[in-house]
Amino acid sequence: MSKLPKQNQFLDLSDYGRPAAKVIAQSLKNTSFTPIHVTIAFVVSGLIAIVCMLSHFYLATAFFLVLKSILDAADGELARIKNMPSYTGRYLDSVSDIILNLMILMTIWYVTDGSLALSFLAFIGIQLQGTLYNYYYVILRNKHNGDTTSRIFESETPKALKGEKQRDVNILFRLYTLFYGVFDKVIHQLDRDAVEAQNLPNWFMTAVSTFGLGFQLLLIGVMLALDLKQYIVPFFIGYSVFILVFIAIRRLINR
Length: 255
Fold this sequence. Notes:
The protein is 69% helix and 0% strand. The chain has 255 residues and is mostly helical. The protein has one domain (10-253): CDP-alcohol phosphotransferase transmembrane (TM) domain (Four Helix Bundle (Hemerythrin (Met), subunit A)). The chain is globular and about 45 Å long. It starts with 17 loop residues before the first helix and ends with a helix. The mean pLDDT is 93.
């Protein structure tokens, strides 16, 4: 099941794991496994990738980073198949992502003996890139009656949906706003008018999807496998320039 109506679907380069994710979700449809279990599985996959990186098993690292991306898509697929939307799952997914991202960048710093400050700057760049992509994607989904568990502005704690506890939603929402609040505010300040955008064409969203976490992890895995690990940090710092490029293009499209 797609998050968007057919006419608004685009080639999402960060979502390459979706076909495998659908197979996994279908295989779990009639089991007791929940989307939360799959989210925990992607956390485990990410942690294994970090252990592999520390052990200099870079091909294995790439495998588990890709597996993490597949499972990251599978939890949402399972939620839609089982009709189990939840804010608990939505925020747990996001909080897990940002913690793993920081751990991955710090591990890259460790194995490359690079600059801690630059590694943290690359982490910030990766988060801003992902935030811009998600910002546009959520706007598109809300505008065209797609999946709406994610909101454009995460300013108020949402009311728990059927099957989840309000306490869990409250805790995870606080963690989400703690970890993502600054990034959300920065991107919104950079492109406040995007909320009113009448046109986010498919080709544009495909280009911006290179900022998606799945594509970012794929690039990291490929660069590790090709023994280019020392270039990962400078690449993501430099690639952050395209945040301003995409915002400029978005404004030109909707002027």
